[in-house]
Amino acid sequence: MESRYYETYYRHETEHWWFRWRFRLIQGVLDQLDLPGTARMLDAGCGTGQMLKTLQRRGEAVGLDISPEAIAFAASRGVENLVLGTVTAPPFPEGSFDVALALDVIEHVDDDRAMLDGLRALVKPGGAVIITVPAFESLWSEHDVINHHRRRYRVPELRERLARAGLEVDRITYCNTTLFPVVGVTRWGQRLFRHFRRAEDAEASSDLHGYPKPVNELLYRLMLLETRLLRRFDLPFGVSILAIARRPATDLVIQVQTTATPADAVLSAR
C-alpha cells in the first residue's frame, strides 16, 4: 500500500462500517475456535493496529508488519507487541502461535504460496490460520492499484493454494455479499469512466472514504445481518473471501537452534 494512505486507514479503522464489520466477523470466527485463555495469536500484516488492539483484549497477541509506517501508526494507537518483519523470514520459532491471522494480506505479495507456507509454520500443529482476501478479478479497480494488490481470488483457487501449503481447510466462503451488486456496478462504472478520461486526469483513488454517519451505520447494520447468515451458510459470491484452515495435528515441528520466543522478538524489535 502507498505510504500516504496509512494515515487514512488509521483514521477510518475505528468508525468505518467495513472495518467494524470485519472486526465483528473475525471475533465471531475466534469465538467458534473456542481458544484457551492462554492462546497466542499473531496478526500478520497488522497494518495500523486496530485489529491487533481488538485481539489483545482476548489474550496474548503479536503484530507483525513489513512497513515501519504501519508499525508507527499502530504504536501511536497504544498497541503493544509490535514486530517489524515478514512471515517468510519471521523472528519467531516454528509453532509459536495457536492462531495466525492474515487479513487482506496475501494478495499484496508476489509469492502467496511462500506466505501461506510461512503462516502454516508459525502455528502449532492443529493451530488455525484465518485469512481474508478480495474476490473476483472482475472487481479489479483503482482501489486494488493503490493498495498494491497483485491479484483477487476465487474460492476454488484459494482452497487449492491453501492445500498446496499443507493446510487443511475447515471452512471457506465468500463474504461481503450484501453489497456485491453495488460494488460491482460502481467499479465497472469507474472503469468505464476512467477509460474515457484523459491520461493526465487519471489519478487513481481509493474506495476508502468517509460516509455520513447515518449511512455508515446503516451499512454496518446490513453487514451484521449478513454475518449472522454466515454462521449457518456459505455464500455463493461476494466482494471478499473468508477462509479458516489448520496445520495438520500430525505435523512435526522442526526444531531449530534458537532461544527466541515471541516476547523476545517483540523486545528486540522495539
What would you note in describing this structure?
The chain has about 270 residues and is α/β, with parallel strands linked by helices. It has one domain (about 5-270): Rossmann fold (3-Layer(aba) Sandwich), CATH 3.40.50.150. About 40% of the residues lie in helices and about 20% in strands. It has ten helices and seven strands. It has helices at about 5-10, 15-35, 50-55, 70-75, 110-120, 140-145, 155-165, 180-195, 215-230, 260-270; strands at about 40-45, 60-65, 80-85, 95-105, 125-135, 170-175, 240-245. It has a seven-stranded mixed β-sheet with strand order 3-2-1-4-5-7-6, with helices on both faces. α2 runs parallel beside α9 (about 215-230). The longest helix is centred in the C-terminal third of the chain and has 18 residues, at about 215-230. It is globular, with a radius of gyration of 18 Å. The two termini are about 25 Å apart.
Stretches where pLDDT is under 50 for at least 5 consecutive residues are 257-261
Biggest sheet overview: 7 strands, mixed
Please trace the helix and strand order, writing H or E for each element: HHEHEHEEHEHHEHHEH
The CATH architecture can be given as: 3-Layer(aba) Sandwich
Query: Percent helix among the residues?
Result: 40-55%
Beta-strand content: 15-25%
The fold-level CATH name is Rossmann fold
The Rg value, from CA coordinates, equals: 18 Å
Query: What is the distance, rounded to the nearest whole angstrom, between the alpha carbons of the first and last residues?
Result: 23 Å
The count of strands amounts to 7
Q: Kindly state the mean pLDDT as a whole number? A: 87
Could you say how many structural domains there are in total?
Answer: 1
CATH class: Alpha Beta
Number of helices: 10
Shape: globular
Output the structural class. Answer: alpha/beta
CATH homologous superfamily (4th level) name: Vaccinia Virus protein VP39
Give me the side-by-side strand order of the main sheet. Answer: 3-2-1-4-5-7-6
